[in-house]
Backbone:
């Protein structure tokens, strides 16, 4: 039983990170059909900017704020200078643009920061809490709680505010949204802002557990993308659940089956799910317009 | 800090180029292919910095045999195919006199055949045994092999009477190769491996694997072959789970950065490492003290980053090559090769190097020191 | 009809370039670069059959590339199979695998297909990394040289001709395929799956054909690279290589045979050219990719062709 709880804690912590990345994918996808492969770089930037701001003597909370603002600006710039000018291009063209952006951001981070690994002090100390024989880091609980808060805030934004409803309308039908007077270009920009902010917050919170460096983004993008697809592209709830499931599969796979093949187990399950449910767990079947 | 770094890099590059252009007619050409970016940038980045720093220094002091060094450095990103392309370019296009190349075993294995075919001396920086055995005429290597690291760890285990161990290794080339080498000498040292786990090079949580090790009865010590950030996370998770048996890291943990990342969790961890890490702590009569203290001070002052044994391997390689060229009185490839092979009693950051026609590494077990982390710093285990 | 003519002209142009290029290549290094371009172009051409003509995204194409590469490494080393036979076996194995997983995978659409192929690619790479006694593990293994009728194929010059001729044949085959009823069906699928199925096109069969062909092209290219380099590592089959293939295909131009070659040329040559930027090379590479895609959004070859057509009075 203590093992089970330990694996569960590990899976949820890692899964929460994937969930935040997947959420970022989903938001941008909903507004623009773009799969943003630079999403992992947002997470990297959140962590790295905070690390270097604190190293320069800025207090941690202010450093975190600077990191979020900086990442949001990068997200806006990505939209303004790379995505918006390519409006109307095919989905794969846009994907390659985001891959280019991810290479660019990694290159910039290597030059501006450095190529070493960095950590941040945990918010509530390093002393693990003992729950039923399992040792859980306070930071893991903070990461999970923050993920929950972000999901609730996002839900409130989408359903309770005009701007959120405009975002939803854009996601549902861009042409119709434009006809009722919604500036869909702005909505896409907004989705980049929110995704960048979520990525940055995630990066800041997980760095004390997972460490960060200029090139952590690639793997996060890969896992986050898989998680988003498992949950069903376009469904924020699906993204979060997808992330948690992938994290849990890896942890239980490593614990009970084989640590060498734990990633394989996660992907085998994803493949199986997609064969049975071709639109993911919570995705809707799209109707192709002829 | 970032802008400073950029400025320093820019200044360094101009230095190298300025040095190159002033002596365009008579120059020694040295080529390097390093993994300065990608998953092995942990190795390639300090190697590149060290190389550029010291070549600029040598040129400022008049070069080799009155000739300036022209340096060509390419980044293979850790990809062996790219390493081979850049290796070909160095030999065919840049027409270099010698190669300092190969940050990883895979990239090194891609370059060795090129050097052999072009009869160009090569000093590589790979960890695994196969990067230097069987001996090939033109290929040399400066880092200790992973087999030596294992033997050093097992020696220490035996001394402490800990014979039943568990291993948790990275699935990257470094972790895998060292794991396999360790398994070849378990019987020699009477070590029993009770349980084995692995983790991916970019995994961010190893508690499931360590939980299984914790649950295995009879384990007296845990050995972790791995490099990069993995060992730091393993160490943190180790303490998080409250595992109390001794933890051994490998020489892949070659920099103070590991202690910074693992924090208090690193207390009591042991590892085999080059004397470089404990430069100032060496007794004054230690013949290696001067060279390691000098290198450490120079590197840390120039880059603002803690010194690593990986950069040290490049220092050793460059100095062995430069010495050989001086003794040969020219950059003639065959003469330089012969002189590298005759290297005796060279005092490097990795230890004393004694090369021979049958040994192109020239280090023995004494090159490794057993270190223990106490109060957030390395200490020598006596 | 015009498209078909353009395709034929493209293949002719390619063949002429392959024939004449050695006259201007100054050293074995340049022959190596050209050979790498041909090998990658072969893989990208395969991917383009799937992506450009059948409209299906694959993020796991390097998996097939890896199967081909390891076939010529493992076959001769462990089982004593001659390299040329191992090459054929590798291509058949990749095709067979594509045929088996193709049915369920190709039922998925768009990004779901992308993630499924991504998973497949990762699984192949993982097996190559973990089955060390066969594959040499993460450090990879050496590949014995290719012997053809007593002729040992090694060095940049022979490989230039082997890969160049193969690429020309592969391009010619692809052009013929596109001109056939199969090709027309594939293009219909690309334009609209729903419309194509309404017209009575057996979607599954044609998509599967494209998938199997792309796998075979990929495996042959992988085997060539392994034989040319004399060694393989799991990175051959890795996620980053898959991304590289997709980038080459899209940059050069989806649905364009010449585009596959141009895309491969760009991403093989750029890392060599960008070394002048030292630490800034990745920044420049990223910028170039973005700029090309923003301004030539259909890919280099189709966009420039469209421009040329528009210029004409």
Residues:
């Amino acid at each position: 039983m203590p093992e089970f709880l330990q694996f569960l804690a590990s899976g949820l912590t890692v899964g929460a990170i994937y969930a935040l990345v997947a959420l970022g994918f989903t938001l941008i996808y909903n507004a623009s059909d773009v799969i943003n492969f630079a999403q992992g770089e947002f997470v990297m930037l959140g962590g790295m900017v905070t690390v270097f701001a604190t190293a320069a003597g800025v207090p941690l909370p202010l450093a975190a704020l600077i990191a979020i603002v900086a990442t949001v600006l990068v997200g806006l710039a990505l939209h303004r200078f790379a995505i918006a000018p390519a409006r109307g291009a095919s989905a794969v063209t846009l994907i390659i643009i985001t891959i280019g952006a991810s290479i660019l951001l990694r290159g910039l981070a290597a030059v501006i920061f450095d190529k070493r690994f960095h950590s941040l002090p945990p918010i509530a100390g390093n002393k693990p809490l003992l729950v039923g024989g399992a040792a859980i880091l306070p930071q893991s609980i903070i990461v999970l709680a923050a993920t929950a808060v972000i999901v609730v805030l996002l839900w409130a934004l989408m359903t309770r505010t005009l701007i959120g409803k405009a975002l939803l309308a854009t996601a549902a039908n861009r042409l119709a949204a434009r006809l009722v007077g919604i500036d869909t270009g702005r909505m896409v920009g907004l989705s980049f802002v929110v995704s960048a902010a979520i990525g940055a917050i995630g990066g800041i919170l997980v760095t004390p557990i997972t460490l960060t460096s200029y090139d952590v983004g690639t793997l996060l993008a890969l896992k986050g993308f898989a998680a988003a697809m498992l949950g069903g592209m376009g469904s924020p709830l699906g993204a979060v659940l997808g992330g948690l499931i992938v994290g849990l599969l890896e942890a239980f796979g490593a614990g009970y089956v084989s640590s060498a093949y734990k990633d394989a187990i996660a992907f085998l399950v994803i493949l199986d799910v997609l064969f049975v449910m071709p639109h993911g767990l919570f995705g809707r079947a799209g109707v192709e317009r002829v | 800090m970032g802008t400073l770094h950029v400025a320093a890099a820019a200044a360094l590059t101009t230095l190298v180029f300025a040095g190159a252009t002033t002596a365009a007619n008579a120059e020694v050409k040295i080529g390097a292919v390093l993994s300065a970016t990608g998953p092995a940038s942990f190795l390639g980045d300090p190697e590149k910095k060290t190389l550029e720093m010291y070549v600029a220094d040598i040129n400022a002091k008049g070069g080799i045999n009155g000739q300036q060094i022209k340096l060509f450095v390419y980044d293979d990103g850790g990809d062996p195919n790219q390493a081979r392309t850049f290796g070909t370019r160095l030999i065919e296009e840049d027409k270099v006199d010698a190669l300092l190349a190969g940050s990883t075993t895979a990239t090194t294995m891609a370059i060795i055949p090129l050097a052999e075919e072009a009869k160009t001396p090569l000093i590589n920086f790979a960890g695994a045994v196969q990067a230097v055995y069987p001996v090939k005429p033109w290929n040399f290597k400066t880092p200790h092999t992973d087999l030596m690291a294992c033997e050093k760890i097992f020696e220490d285990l035996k001394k402490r009477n800990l014979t039943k161990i568990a291993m948790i290794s990275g699935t990257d080339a470094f972790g895998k190769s060292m794991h396999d080498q360790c398994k070849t000498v378990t019987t020699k040292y009477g070590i029993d491996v009770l349980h084995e786990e692995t983790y991916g090079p970019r995994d961010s949580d190893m508690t499931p694997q360590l939980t299984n090790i914790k649950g295995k009865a009879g384990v007296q010590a845990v050995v972790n072959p791995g490099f990069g950030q993995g060992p730091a996370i393993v160490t943190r998770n180790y303490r998080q789970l409250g595992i109390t048996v001794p933890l051994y890291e490998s020489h892949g943990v070659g920099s103070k950065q590991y202690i910074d990342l693992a924090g208090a969790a690193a207390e009591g961890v042991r590892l085999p490492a080059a004397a470089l890490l404990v430069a100032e702590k060496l007794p004054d009569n230690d013949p290696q003290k001067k060279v390691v203290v000098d290198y450490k001070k120079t590197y840390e002052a120039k880059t603002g980053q803690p010194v690593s044994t990986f950069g040290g391997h490049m220092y050793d390689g460059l100095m062995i090559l430069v010495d050989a060229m001086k003794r040969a009185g020219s950059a003639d490839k065959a003469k330089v090769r012969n002189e590298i092979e005759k290297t005796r009693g060279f005092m490097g950051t990795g230890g004393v190097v004694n090369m021979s026609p049958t040994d192109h590494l020239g280090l023995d077990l004494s090159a490794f020191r057993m270190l223990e982390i106490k109060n957030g710093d390395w200490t020598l285990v006596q | 009809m015009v498209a078909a003519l353009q395709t034929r002209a493209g293949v002719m142009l390619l063949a002429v370039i392959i024939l004449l290029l050695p006259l201007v290549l100054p050293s074995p290094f340049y022959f190596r670069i050209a050979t790498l371009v041909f090998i990658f172009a072969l893989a990208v051409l395969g991917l383009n059959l799937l992506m450009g003509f059948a409209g299906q995204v694959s993020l796991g194409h390097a998996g097939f590339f890896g199967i081909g590469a390891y076939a010529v490494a493992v076959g001769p080393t462990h089982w004593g199979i001659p390299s040329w036979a191992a090459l054929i076996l590798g291509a058949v194995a990749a095709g067979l695998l594509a045929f088996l997983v193709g049915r369920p995978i190709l039922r998925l659409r768009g990004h779901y297909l992308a993630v499924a192929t991504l998973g497949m690619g990762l699984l192949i790479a993982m097996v190559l990394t973990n089955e060390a006694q066969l594959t040499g593990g993460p450090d990879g293994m050496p590949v014995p040289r290719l012997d053809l009728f007593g002729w040992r194929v090694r060095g940049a010059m022979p490989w230039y001709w082997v890969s160049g001729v193969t690429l020309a044949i592969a391009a010619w085959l692809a052009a013929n395929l596109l001109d056939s009823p199969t090709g027309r069906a594939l293009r219909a699928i690309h334009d609209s799956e729903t419309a194509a199925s309404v017209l009575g096109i057996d979607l599954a069969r044609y998509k599967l054909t494209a998938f199997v062909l792309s796998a075979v092209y990929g495996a042959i290219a992988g085997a060539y690279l392994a034989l040319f380099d004399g060694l393989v590592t799991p990175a051959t089959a890795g996620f980053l290589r898959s991304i590289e293939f997709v980038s080459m295909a899209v940059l050069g131009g989806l649905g364009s045979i010449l585009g596959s070659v141009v895309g491969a040329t760009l991403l093989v040559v750029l890392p060599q050219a960008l070394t002048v930027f030292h630490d800034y090379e990745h920044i420049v590479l990223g910028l170039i990719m973005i700029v090309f895609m923003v301004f030539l959004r259909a890919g280099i070859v189709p966009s420039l062709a469209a421009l040329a057509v528009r210029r004409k009075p």
About this structure: The mean pLDDT of chain A is 91. The radius of gyration of chain A is 19 Å. Chain A touches chain C through 48 residues (CB under 8 Å).
